[in-house]
Amino acid sequence: MKKLLVSVFTLASLIGAATPVSADQPAKHTVQKGDSLYEIANDYGISSHQLMAINNKRSHTIYPGETIELPVMPNANEKDLLSRLVEAEAKGESYAGKVAVATVVLNRVESELFPDSLRGVILQEYQFTPVSNGQINKPASQESKAAVEEALDYQGYDNESLFFYNPDKAYSAYLSAKEVTTVIGDHVFLR
């Protein structure tokens, strides 16, 4: 019986090590002796190139004890929430604009300036108008859902935008002091 329990515990530990991380869980991996970037990426279902990009690595060299940042990997409910936010925030914008809005939210999860969960970032008070006016409760279009999927695949390759706004609809002295990273449609993206 004891051997069976140890075997079950060992199997559960191995399965848990390779399970994608939810956006509400820490997105980090501690390198163990014998690990490689390729194996870590494979365990989490991402490419080694994306893992390198997220960690600003120029080579595949890693060391035991090193902490590797992982991309945000939301569950189905978190993806739906993000898709609904993208739909409400970027309705009428291009597909690229929708991807950029989703990317801002994902970047905020990774930033020390914002909550460290997807839900926390989206529901943070005074951040997204659709949360306060209820527009986030409307269903997302297929295009917004696809934009979220692309933003998830694009993590690590972006220009680190943390903010966006439409200067025709809002003015912010705080945002005007930030560095513009790109302009897509009516939205200005900044870091």
Main pleated-sheet profile: 3 strands, antiparallel
Whole-number radius of gyration? 19 Å
Tell me the domain tally. 2
Find the CATH superfamily of the largest domain. Cell wall hydrolase SleB, domain 1
Category by helix and strand content: mainly alpha
Instruction: Provide the helix percentage.
Output: 40-55%
Fraction in beta strands: 5-15%
Domain LysM: 27-70
Signal peptide: 1-23
Keywords: Signal
GO molecular function, one term: hydrolase activity
Characterise the protein shown here.
The chain has 191 residues and is mostly helical. The chain folds into two domains: 2-69, Membrane-bound Lytic Murein Transglycosylase D, Chain A; 76-190, Arc Repressor Mutant, subunit A (Orthogonal Bundle), CATH 1.10.10.2520. It has nine helices and five strands, in the order αβααβαααααβαββ. Strand 4 (180-184) and strand 5 form a beta hairpin. Helix 5 crosses helix 8 (142-154). The chain is globular, with a radius of gyration of 19 Å.
Sum up the structure in keywords.
191 residues, mainly alpha, Membrane-bound Lytic Murein Transglycosylase D, Chain A, Arc Repressor Mutant, subunit A, three-stranded antiparallel beta sheet, 9 helices, LysM peptidoglycan-binding domain-containing protein, LysM, Cell_wall_hydrolase_SleB, LysM_dom_sf
Tell me briefly what this model is.
This protein is 47% helix and 9% strand.
